[in-house]
User: What shape does this take?
Amino acid sequence: MSKAGSEAEKLKEETPHFTWEGYFKKIKCKPRDFPLPGLCGFDLFVSWLGAFLGISTVAFLTLYFDVPLLVASFGASAVLIYGVPEAPLSQPRNVILGHTIAATTGVVIYSIFGLTWWSAALGCSLGILIMLITKTTHPPAGATALIGVWNQQAPMFIFAPVFVGAVILVIIGLITNNISPRRSYPKYWI
Assistant: This one.
């Protein structure tokens, strides 16, 4: 048997077959056997401080200088950056590139197809797909792609508010998360 043939047989053996019983068994799941992570009082304060400073900075710049830097999906990014800074989806690469890729996807889909029920779904789902392929997944960015289509955004939306706002949130995360001796942010850049 050829090497390619043996690899195909091995893959076939490793790939589980679909059954309805197996499908519903996965949905049932098991009871949780691990404790939920807890934070000490100081780390809770650091999370609050980071979220307050991050969102207030982009909101202040938006209102005071009339420069759009605030997107609703940044609220969810704040949960990740300041609440669980050690999570892979909270890292600068994921936050900045995830939002930028998603915004670009939303703007491109809107510019090609306009605003329809299916273009909103396509913008969001395609944004998610591209983030997964590029390993830049950031869950709040799914909303950014949707906003790009639903709010009929122009190409400038990609740079400001999305890219610049995401960079500001990450910079505030660098400053505040490292106040705690138990935190180190980021875990990686690339």
User: Anything to note?
Assistant: Residues 107 and 141 are 13 Å apart (CA to CA).
